[in-house]
Design brief:
Blueprint (H helix, E strand, L loop, with lengths): L17 H12 L1 H39 L9 H33 L1 H6 L1 H8 L3 H33 L14 H6 L2 H21 L2 H22 L7 E6 L10 E9 L4 E2 L9 H10 L1 E9 L4 H31 L11
Antiparallel strand pairs: 1-4, 2-3, 2-4
Helix pairs in contact: 1-6, 2-3, 2-6, 3-6, 3-8, 3-9, 6-8, 6-11, 8-9, 8-11, 9-11
Length: 343
């Protein structure tokens, strides 16, 4: 009697999911950039902590000494503390504002263009992962690291700026200074993420590192220019009317528009720099001008402007990321990873 040995099918082999493999491979591939990013964030963060602490205290004390001098011919005050604060504040602001452009340059030069240029991307698409998942990992992992790092920098910059408010530091930047506004708010974080999307898209278009790097930086600068020009109009402004006896329209903040009002309520551009000049008074009389007007954003509009600018920047970044996926789909067609069945 012969028995037939029944053979049960072998259990399927458990393979690690593609997402963790992609993440590990991406971090390993871009390890130098990751180390440089961590070093940049640590160094600039330490500088911002020093700026908001000892530098601000020393500058405030020096300005108090200077103000106490009055009209004295000779007076002792710590001039170096004032100069160091002013210079270091400028360096810190430039460092924070440069982050989105550094991200765009890196993304354009290495994120997608290098693998397309060398052909390793197509090998990955045909053997391990789909093009869409490949690009999703390329965007998701750096986006998380960029958001955390840039968010830390702008948060520390905002704290350093806030530490000098109300302390009579004459060299401190006002909140409505354009560079100061963007360096200390979430708009810069959104712009860094937009720079990442720009780099990924441009890399898919050029498929060469150097042209993609240059184009990414220029495009990110264009996005920043759009946000900068649109900023005054992202939130309703307030209008303040003041007398012509003043040298300029009253109202401190981010100016949207200003000029003179006629007796009929018509708005005209201000033809003079100062109403105290006799010639200007005659000009105002000819125009039938009765007062100044200024449309502006006061300090209370700081966070509404920041949040609306951030939302606009994120929308632009999302559109660019979607365009990158569409571009990838058009280039790859029906390429899909090869399915391996166990023997």
């Amino acid at each position: 009697m012969t028995g037939l040995a029944s053979t049960a099918p072998a259990p399927p082999t458990r393979r690690p999911s593609a997402a963790p493999r992609q993440t590990r491979w991406l971090l390993r591939l871009h390890r130098p950039a990751l180390c440089a990013w961590a070093g940049l964030v640590l160094v600039v963060s330490a500088g911002l902590l020093w700026l908001g602490g000892p530098f601000t205290d020393a500058a405030a004390a020096a300005w108090r000494q200077y103000d106490a001098c009055g009209m004295a011919a000779t007076c002792a005050y710590d001039q170096l503390a004032i100069l160091h604060y002013r210079d270091f504040y400028q360096y810190a602001m430039v460092a924070v504002l440069a982050v989105p452009f550094l991200v765009a340059a890196w993304a354009g030069a290495t994120l997608t263009s290098r693998e397309l240029e060398t052909g390793t991307a197509r090998l990955a698409w045909t053997q391990s992962v789909s093009p869409a998942r490949w690009l999703a990992a390329k965007l998701a992992v750096p986006a998380a690291l960029i958001a955390v790092g840039t968010g830390l920098l702008v948060g520390l910059y905002h704290l350093a700026w806030s530490a000098g408010r109300g302390r009579s530091i004459d060299s401190a930047k006002p909140w409505y200074d354009s560079s100061n506004f963007f360096a200390g708010g979430p708009t810069t974080v959104a712009l860094a993420l937009a720079g990442l999307a720009v780099g990924a898209l441009v890399g898919l278009v050029w498929r060469r590192s150097l042209p993609a790097l240059i184009t990414s930086v220029v495009t990110t600068a264009g996005v920043f220019g759009i946000i900068h020009l649109a900023l005054p109009y992202l939130w309703p402004s307030v209008t303040r009317v003041s007398r012509l006896t003043l040298d300029a329209p009253a109202g401190t903040g981010l100016t949207v528009d200003e000029g003179v009002l006629t007796s009929t309520g018509a708005r005209l551009p201000d033809p003079c720099d100062s109403s105290s000049l006799q010639q200007c008074r005659a000009t105002y009389d000819e125009l039938d001008a009765v007062s100044y007007y200024r449309d502006y954003h006061p300090l209370s509009h700081y966070w509404p402007l920041q949040l609306t600018a951030t939302a606009l920047t994120l929308a632009i970044g999302a559109f660019l990321a979607l365009a990158a996926f569409r571009m990838l789909k058009r280039h790859t067609g029906g390429i899909s990873p090869r399915e391996k069945t166990p023997a």
